[in-house]
Design brief:
Rossmann fold, 2 domains, six-stranded mixed beta sheet, five-stranded antiparallel beta sheet, binds adenosine-5'-triphosphate
Length: 345
């Protein structure tokens, strides 16, 4: 029904001085929830706007439902967008806000109201239809914006940080709601965020972007366990993956895989950790220190769950280990994944 595909997409600004999109290829599955994740300025919004038709690409193609739409105006694309600023009309009621796109599309009045009520019902805001936006909470406003997007029966949703105006608690519940809602509807969705926990929680797949390019695209678990390069390895995960130099490679391992040696049965690589600082975070101990794999001391973080009770004090040296299967290797020059290297211990 409706997939989104971009082929070798480029978007330049300022006579080519800014390469906001620098050669992107992405194809969504049918009904997929794809998240575009990356730091500020990496080109997420520009990519979404180009898919929507609000920007024309410098080169490359956009396809929706297998049809080339490059050059077509936004209204010809059957997409619905929700942006960070919901831009509700402050003087119109919630109902009037929701039906607005249908008025513009000249849908008959009875049908408009019926569709608006159905959309409001799906989002649990039927009781708010007579209110003005200023009489709503942030979360309710966001649902109105979604209802307004939904009412047009789009084949694709494009969402640009729609939750970023909400406080942390509301954001978590809105995120759950959005996910459930998308699953029920099965509408292909592309969602932009710079928040990795949002991306990990929402996405069927995540496209990690940096400097106008896609560094990696895959399921959250793949991106986390098998990062394609050091950018992805350190952008995803909090605290990020440790990277320790060893000859021509960087040896990567997640903080939760660096544990006191007695907690790591089986094949493992050991290293002495000089403990410099400790933090307690929701029951976990975060141990900050240095290890040396032959190229001098390198800062690392170990994350010990509450079940690891080994006493550890600042200033001590401790034997730690990482299961061999948890090590990832990157070439030191370009940061790309490379063949495993045998480490001494
Ligand atoms: P954020 O998370 O901060 O919104 P983003 O990843 O969405 O960032 P974009 O807004 O797509 O990034 O911007 C990508 C790059 O293109 C940035 O360097 C930005 O300054 C530049 N850019 C975007 N729009 C324009 C424009 N109209 N003219 C010139 N440069 C632009």
């Amino acid at each position: 029904m409706s997939t989104v595909e971009v082929r070798d997409l480029h978007k330049h600004f300022d006579a080519g001085r800014v390469r906001a999109i620098d050669g992107v290829d992405i194809a969504t599955g049918e009904g997929e929830y794809l998240v575009l994740l990356g730091p500020s300025g990496c080109g997420k919004t520009t990519l979404l706007r180009t898919i929507a038709g609000l920007e024309q690409p410098s080169s490359g193609e956009v396809l929706i439902g297998g049809q080339a739409v490059t050059g077509l105006p936004p209204r010809a694309r059957r997409i619905a967008m929700v942006f960070q600023s919901y831009a509700l009309y402050p003087h119109k009621s919630v109902l009037a806000n929701i039906v607005f796109p249908l008025r513009a599309a000249r849908v008959p009045p009875d049908e408009r109201t019926q569709r608006a009520r159905r959309a409001a019902g799906m989002l649990g805001i039927e009781h708010l239809l007579d209110r003005k936006p200023r009489q709503l909470s942030g979360g309710e406003r966001q649902r109105v914006a979604l209802a307004r997007a939904l009412v047009r029966d789009p084949t694709v949703f494009l969402l640009d940080e729609p939750l970023s105006n909400l406080d942390a608690k509301l954001r978590a519940s809105a995120r759950d709601e959005l996910k459930r809602f998308q699953q029920d509807l099965g509408t292909t969705t592309i969602y932009v965020t710079h928040d990795q926990s949002e991306a990990m929680g929402l996405g069927d797949r995540i496209a990690v972007m940096s400097q106008g390019r896609v560094r990696q695209i895959g399921a959250p678990v793949e991106i986390y366990d098998d990062p394609a390069d050091t950018f992805v390895a350190t952008f995803i995960g909090s605290p990020p993956m440790n990277l320790v130099p060893h000859g021509d490679v960087l040896v990567g391992f997640r903080p939760e895989h660096l544990l006191p040696v007695e907690n790591v049965p089986g094949e493992r690589v050991t290293a002495t950790l000089e403990v410099q600082r400790m933090e307690y975070l929701s029951g976990d101990r975060h141990v900050y220190g240095t290890v040396d794999l032959g190229d001098g001391p390198c800062r690392v973080i170990a994350r010990l769950p509450a079940t690891v009770e080994t006493p550890i004090a600042v200033g001590e040296r401790h034997e730690f280990a990482v299961p061999a299967g948890r090590l990832r290797f990157f070439d030191a020059e370009h940061g790309l994944r490379t063949e495993p290297v045998r480490l001494g211990a």
